[in-house]
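Late entry, written up from scratch paper. The run itself happened at the end of the previous shift, but nothing got recorded in the book at the time, so transcribing now.
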Amino acid sequence: MLKHFFWMTAWMTVSIGAFASSVDNNIGKVQLLLGQEATLIRDGEAQPVMADVGLREGDTLETGPATHIHLKMNDGAYIALRPQSELKIECYQSNPEKNLCMKFDLKKGNMRAVSGKGSHSDPQKYRLNTPVAAIGVRGTDFVTQIQNGSTLVRVLEGAITVTPYSEMCQASTLGNCSTELTGLLTQDDTFMLKAMPGTRPQQIALSHNMANRSDVLEQQSREKVAQEATKFGDVVQILKDDPELVQKYLELAGYSNQQDFDPQDKPDLSQSQVPLMFGTWNDYSVGIARPYDEAREGRMVTVGNAAGALWRADGVYQPPSGKLDYNLTDSSAYIVTPNSAVIGADVTDGALSINFDKNELKTHINILPDDGRAINFSATHQLNRTDGVFAIGGDEGRIAAGAISNDGQQVGYMINAPVEQGRLNAQTLWQAQ
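Output as recorded:
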C-alpha cells in the first residue's frame, strides 16, 4: 500500500496517496487528452476526441504527432495511447457475470496497457492484436509498439505471451495462443520480444535493443537530468528572484553559451507567442521541457530547479477577476529512486481552479508510474505574490512551484516531492476552460 505524505501550512494542504478509478455507463472513457490532434471514429463517422467522452465497443482512436490519450475502462484497466497511434476497441465486456470479451487491435503506433478486473478474472478473454502477432496477458502492465513491420513488446509487471499469426493462432480468437512460435515474456526478463511473421519472437536485450525508440531516448534524457539535479539539489525555487541561481544551474548543466547569459535579457517576443514553456538547462528536451534556448526565447524565467525551469512571456501580470477552471493540456513525470535510478510515469488525470478574487489555487493530479504504484498529488494554496508566481511549501521545504500567464489563461507548475519510491518530478501545463 502506498504511503501517504501530508504537509500543512497556514494557507496550504498537500497530500500524496492512491487514486481511485471511476465507473460510468459506458465501457470506459477518455480520462486525459494531451494535445489537439486526436480523432474518434464511431459507426464510420470521425469526430474530435474530447476529454471525458464515453467509449463504446467498435470505437477507433487515432492520435496525431504530438497527442497522447489516456483511457480508463470500467473495470479499472488503463491504456495510454501515444502519438501517431491507432487503436480499435473490438469488444469490452468486463463483468464476470456476463460473457467476458476484452479485445483491442493496435493498428499502428505505441501503447501502454494495464490490465483490469475483467482480464484478471479470466485472462483467456483478453487479446491485443497487432498487425503481425497476438498478445495475451496474465495480469499485466506492458508496452507495445508497431515498428517497421514488427511488433515490439516490453513487460513492466506480470507476464504476456506473444504469438505470430498462423492457422493455430488467428486474430479472430481471444486469449493466449500456444503454438511453436509463442514467446513468453515476464517482468523479470532483461529483454523485450520482437515479433515478425512466421518466426518465433526474437529476444533483444533491453540495454541496447531500443536505442531508436522514443520512450528509451526519453528515459536516457530523464536519467541525464536526474544525475545533474542530484549534484546541486532539486528543491523547486522561485528563480525570478534569484538570477545568480539560474547562472549556477546553467554552469551545472555545462551549457555551452552560459557566459553569454543575462537574466535580465528580454528577447523579441514576436519570435514566440507561447505564454508558458518548460525548458531544460541544456540543448535537449525532456518530456514537455524544451531545450534552454527555445524555452527562454521571448520569455523570462519564473520557477525551477536543477532539472529545468518554467519560462513565461515577458509582460505585465493582469489576471482576470472571478474563478477560472483549467484543463490539463500537457504533462510529463518521472521518479528518481534513492539509488538514482529513474522510473517513468504518466499523468493520467488532473484538475485545477483559481479564484482570483480570493487569490486561492486548488489542484490535483493522478500519476501512474511504470512500477504500477499510483500517486495522487493535491494542493490548496494561497497566492500571496502579485506577479502570478507561486511556491507551495511543506514540512520538508518547497515541493511545487509555478506561474500563471500574464492574462490568467494558462498555468504551469512543477513538482518535486517525496513519494514511496523516491522523489516525484512532474511538470504540468493548463489552459482555462
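The chain has four helices and 31 strands.
(Scratch paper discarded after transcription.)
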